[in-house]
Specification:
- The chain is an all-alpha fold.
- The protein has seven helices and no strands.
- Helix 1 runs antiparallel to helix 2, helix 2 packs across helix 3 and helix 6 crosses helix 7.
- The longest helix has 29 residues.
- The radius of gyration is 31 Å and the shape is elongated.
């Protein structure tokens, strides 16, 4: 390619890259894959730029290269599925339930004091050790342990309280939680 054609290609890419990236995004759902697709198509078009006599058709040419490239990628993907005579016994996880559990947990964490919440998050979500949590929060390991113990007890109480309220809201009889050492009365029938 001549120097003029190289400059012409660079100018074309500079002025049309946003529109071309939008086209790539319509062809593949992942934004990173769309950028890769456009980059690959531009590299392939660069080698044939001097063969495009009417540069007004460059967009159409490049889009065709993107479509062909996407098709090549799709055909070249490694298939992990293997046809079998019998279907496997597998259950599909209900993501809705997981989201509901996560929302409940985030809501229940709000009842904790900030220090307690920090300890619970670092120990259980971030899976830090007691020593790592202590160093991160600037407290002793013993304080982390006792704070975590009190926080988990508070979370259990809050979850039990909410479960009781939910049960009562559903029209069920009020259930009273027995205090430690308190016994249930036996009904003589």
């Amino acid at each position: 390619m001549t120097q003029g054609e190289v400059l012409g290609f660079e100018e074309y890419v500079r002025t049309r890259q946003d529109a071309l990236l939008r086209s790539a995004r319509r062809l593949v759902p992942d934004p990173i894959d769309a950028q890769d697709l456009l980059q690959t198509a531009l590299a392939r078009t660069y080698g044939r730029w001097d063969g495009i006599s009417d540069k007004r058709l460059a967009d159409a040419y490049l889009r065709r290269v993107m479509i062909n490239t996407r098709t090549e990628w799709w055909r070249a993907r490694k298939l992990e599925e293997v046809p079998t005579e019998q279907l496997p016994d597998a259950t599909v996880d209900d993501v809705t339930e997981q989201h509901a559990d996560r929302e409940l947990l985030l809501d229940v964490l709000r009842v904790l004091a900030p220090q307690q919440r920090s300890v619970v998050v670092l120990r259980h979500w971030e899976q830090m050790s007691t020593q790592e949590t202590a160093a991160a929060l600037g407290m002793s390991a013993g304080t982390v342990k006792s704070t975590l113990h009190r926080a988990l007890a508070r979370l259990r109480e809050e979850l039990e309280r909410r479960e009781l309220e939910e049960h009562e809201d559903l029209g069920g009889p009020g259930v009273r939680v027995l205090a430690p050492g308190e016994e249930r009365e036996r009904c003589a029938a």
